[in-house]
Design brief:
Blueprint lengths: L2 H11 L13 E6 L3 H17 L5 E6 L47 H6 L2 H7 L13 H18 L3 E5 L3 E4 L4 E4 L4 E3 L2 E4 L10 H12 L3 E3 L17 E5 L3 H10 L6 E5 L2 E5 L6 E6 L26 H6 L7 H24 L8 H9 L6 H10 L9 H5 L10 H19 L6 H21 L5 H20 L4 H12 L3 E6 L2 E5 L2 E5 L6 E4 L1 E4 L13 H9 L4 E5 L5 E7 L6 E3 L5 E7 L21 H17 L5 H6 L1
Parallel strand pairs: 1-2, 1-7, 2-3, 7-21, 8-17, 9-12, 9-17, 12-13
Antiparallel strand pairs: 4-5, 5-6, 10-11, 14-15, 15-16, 18-19, 20-21
C-alpha cells in the first residue's frame, strides 16, 4: 500500500457519525443516478466482490426519480416510435475477452444475443417486435434489456439493494444523502453518476423566450426531444427548425407518425400518408444537410487501430505545455483521416487506383493532405472523384454553392441525400468505414490530450467539444438509413422542406423569419424549434444536489474563459484519476466519486459499448469498482499493513 493509499484508507475508516463506517456494521454505499453507468459499475462491483469484499455485509442504495436500469434516457415511459441510432449487434453492457481490466470477466449477452435468446419472451410480453443484429431497434427495446441487466446484477450482488424513486437534493457534511421526500441515508461512500444534466437556459434562450412570448409566438429551446412539449406546433402551419441531427429526427418522427401518419412502400419507393395533423417543417442548420446515415454494412477484419500520426509521442515532440489545436492538432487529424481512407481504398479496391499503396503512402507520409504534391498524387492515383477524401468537402458539402431558386435547392439536396443513402449501404465504399474507425481512434487521443492539460479551455470548448464533436457526429453518429428514407418521403409529401445552410433566425413583425446564406428568399413562421441538445454546463445545471455541492465547495468546476475574456460557460466537474471528487480547495474527497459525461476524465459516458471493443468505460468501471470494494473491506490486509 502506498503512502497516499494509507492516508485515504485511514481517512475513510475514521467514523463520520455513530454506527457509520465501522467494520462490525453494514457498509453503506449510495449511487445517485440509476442509469446504464451505475448498472455497469455495479456489474463490475459484483464481479470483484468475492475477491475483495470479505465477509462484511453491505447495503447499496440507488437514488433516481426514474427506474433503475434505463434511467431517464432509456426509460420505458417514452414513445415506441423513437429508435436507437446503434444496431443491436453494437450494444453491450457486459465485459468480454477484449476488455483489459483487473477484475474477472463475467460473460453476458450483448443486445442482439439477448433479443434472440432470453429477451424474446420479455419483448413479446411488452408487445415489441424482435430485432436482428443489423437492425436499429426502438429505444424501448434497449429499456427492456437494461431492466433485465439490472435485475441480473442485483441477483449477483452480495448486498441488500434498495432503490429510491425520487431525487437526491443534498449531501451533508457528515455524509448523509437527503432525498426530496426528506428521507436521509447514511453513507460510507457516495457515487454520483448523474448522466446528462438539465441546465438553466442561456441568456440568449431567455431573451428568445421573452420576445416570442411578447409577440404571441411559440419558441422551443434546445432540449431532449422525448421530454419536450410539442402540442403548440399546430397542424398545417410553418415551423422553422434549426438543427439537422438526431434531435431533429426525433422531432420529425413525433410530429408525423406520432400524429397519426403512416408510410407505404411500393416498388421500393417509400410514400408518406399524412393524417392532417402535421405541421410543415422548414429545417436547416450550419451545414444545411442531415447527418450521414449510419453505415449499413460490415467488413470483416476492419476495426479501430492505433493512430499513425496523431499520437502521444507526436504531441510530445511538439513541446511541453499547452498546444494550439488549429496549428498543431488539426493538421494531424486531417492526415490521420486521409491515411485511413486511402489505405482501405488501395488495399480493398486496388482496381480503382493507379499507383501502388507504398508509393502513395510515401507521398502522404512526407507531406500534408492540403500540400500541392499530395493533391497532385491524388489526382493521378485516384481517377474517380467519388473515391477521394477531402475533410473540408465532407464537412461542408454545400460550401460555396448558392441557389436563387428554393425549389432547385430542395431538389439538389434531396438528390444529395439519395446518393448518400446508396453509398452508405455499399461496401465497395468501405473507405467510409475506415474513416469511421479512425474517428474513434482520434477521439481516444484527444481525450488523453485534454486530461493531460495539453489543450487550452478555449480550444477544448470551441474546437474539440463544438467543431470536432460536430464533425464526428455528422459523419459517425447519424440516424439509421430508414430515417433518411422517411425524410425523403416526407419531403415528397410536402411535410418537410429544406431551409438551407447557415440558417439565421430573427423576429420581424411578430413572426420568426429564417434566412440562409446558400438560398435566396426567406421563410416566415409562428413557431421556431432549436432541435439540438443544450451545451453541457455544470455551473448552469438545475440539479439541486450538484448546485449545493458546488456552492459549498465540496465539488469544483472551472468557469471557462476565452483568451479575449469571453465566458465559455462552466466546465466539467473535477475528479482525479480514480474518479474521486476534487474539492474547490484542490483537495481530494476520499469517499465521493464522480462518473458520467459532466465529469473530467470520465470515459464511456453512454454506459455501454460495442462488443469486443475494449470499451474505455468498462475499464474505468472495473478500476473504480475495485477501489470502492477495497475501501469497504472490513480491514486492511495483513500484508499491506506489513508493507506500510
Amino acid at each position: 500500500m502506498t503512502r497516499q493509499e494509507q492516508v485515504v484508507a485511514a481517512e475513510f475508516r475514521r467514523p463520520r457519525a455513530p454506527g457509520v463506517g465501522h467494520s462490525n456494521s453494514p457498509a453503506k454505499i449510495v449511487f445517485v443516478g440509476g442509469g446504464p453507468r451505475t448498472v455497469g459499475l455495479l456489474e463490475r462491483f459484483a464481479a470483484s466482490a468475492p475477491e475483495l469484499l470479505g465477509e462484511r455485509s453491505l447495503e447499496i442504495h440507488v437514488v433516481d426519480p426514474f427506474p433503475a436500469g434505463g434511467g431517464r434516457i432509456w426509460r420505458r415511459d417514452q414513445s415506441r416510435l423513437l429508435w436507437m441510432n446503434s444496431m443491436t449487434s453494437d450494444v453491450t453492457i457486459f465485459t468480454d475477452e477484449s476488455v483489459e481490466c483487473d477484475g474477472p470477466i463475467i460473460p453476458g449477452p450483448d443486445l442482439a444475443t439477448w433479443v434472440a435468446g432470453e429477451g424474446a419472451v420479455i419483448l413479446e410480453r411488452a408487445a415489441l417486435e424482435p430485432a436482428g443484429p443489423m437492425d436499429f431497434p426502438p429505444r424501448l427495446l434497449q429499456a427492456e434489456y437494461l431492466a433485465w441487466v439490472w435485475e441480473r446484477v442485483v441477483r449477483d450482488l452480495p448486498a441488500t439493494v434498495t432503490t429510491h424513486l425520487e431525487r437526491a437534493v443534498e449531501l451533508t457534511a457528515d455524509q448523509r444523502v437527503v432525498l426530496a421526500s426528506g428521507k436521509e441515508i447514511d453513507a460510507d461512500l457516495v457515487v454520483l453518476a448523474l448522466g446528462y444534466l438539465d441546465r438553466l437556459p442561456t441568456a440568449s434562450e431567455t431573451a428568445w423566450a421573452a420576445r416570442a412570448s411578447d409577440a404571441g409566438l411559440t419558441y422551443i429551446p434546445p432540449g431532449y426531444t422525448a421530454d419536450v412539449d410539442l402540442d403548440d406546433l399546430r397542424s398545417g402551419e410553418n415551423v422553422i427548425v434549426r438543427g439537422f441531427g438526431q434531435a431533429f429526427i426525433d422531432l420529425m418522427v413525433l410530429l408525423t407518425e406520432g400524429r397519426g401518419g403512416w408510410y407505404d412502400e411500393c416498388d421500393g419507393l417509400l410514400s408518406y400518408r399524412p393524417s392532417g395533423n402535421e405541421p410543415i417543417l422548414y429545417v436547416g442548420s450550419r451545414r444545411g444537410v442531415p447527418y450521414h446515415a449510419k453505415l449499413g454494412y460490415t467488413v470483416a477484419g476492419t476495426k479501430p487501430v492505433p493512430t499513425r500520426y496523431l499520437t502521444k509521442a507526436a504531441l510530445d515532440e511538439l513541446g511541453a505545455g499547452v498546444l494550439d489545436f488549429q496549428t498543431h492538432l488539426s493538421p494531424l487529424i486531417d492526415k490521420e483521416l486521409t491515411f485511413a481512407h486511402y489505405q482501405q481504398l488501395f488495399s480493398a479496391h486496388p482496381e480503382r487506383t493507379r499507383w501502388s499503396w507504398q508509393r502513395f503512402a510515401s507521398v502522404l507520409d512526407g507531406s500534408w493532405p492540403t500540400a500541392p504534391e499530395f493533391i497532385a498524387a491524388v489526382e493521378d492515383a485516384v481517377p474517380d472523384p467519388n473515391d477521394r477524401f477531402v475533410r473540408a468537402a465532407v464537412d461542408r458539402p454545400l460550401n460555396g454553392r448558392f441557389f436563387e431558386d428554393r425549389d432547385r435547392f430542395e431538389q439538389f439536396l434531396a438528390g444529395l441525400i439519395e446518393t448518400d443513402l446508396l453509398r452508405r449501404a455499399d461496401a465497395s465504399y468501405s473507405a467510409d468505414l475506415a474513416v469511421f474507425n479512425a474517428l474513434l481512434s482520434i477521439y481516444s487521443v484527444l481525450s488523453v490530450a485534454i486530461t493531460e492539460g495539453r489543450l487550452s479551455d478555449e480550444d477544448r470548448v470551441r474546437h474539440v467539444e463544438t467543431e470536432w464533436h460536430g464533425f464526428f457526429s455528422f459523419v459517425a453518429s447519424g440516424p439509421p438509413p430508414r430515417r433518411l428514407e422517411e425524410l425523403l418521403a416526407l419531403h415528397r409529401a410536402g411535410i418537410v422542406r429544406f431551409a438551407g445552410p447557415d440558417l439565421d433566425v430573427a423576429i420581424d413583425n411578430d413572426q420568426f423569419v429564417a434566412r440562409s446564406s446558400g438560398v435566396a428568399g426567406e421563410i416566415r413562421a409562428r413557431a421556431f424549434v432549436e432541435a439540438r441538445l443544450p451545451r453541457p454546463d455544470v455551473l448552469a445545471a438545475t440539479d439541486p444536489l450538484l448546485r449545493g455541492l458546488l456552492a459549498s465547495g465540496v465539488l469544483a468546476a472551472d468557469e471557462l474563459f476565452a483568451a479575449d475574456g469571453t465566458s465559455l460557460g462552466g466546465g466539467q466537474l473535477k475528479a482525479d484519476s480514480q474518479c474521486r471528487a476534487i474539492r474547490a480547495d484542490g483537495s481530494v474527497h476520499p469517499s465521493l466519486f464522480l462518473l458520467g459525461p459532466s465529469v473530467s476524465g470520465s470515459a464511456g459516458s453512454s454506459g455501454f459499448s460495442r462488443p469486443h471493443f475494449n470499451g474505455a468505460g468498462f475499464r474505468q468501471n472495473d478500476a473504480v469498482a475495485r477501489h470502492l470494494l477495497k475501501l469497504l473491506a472490513p480491514t486492511v490486509r495483513k500484508e499491506e499493513r506489513h508493507a506500510s
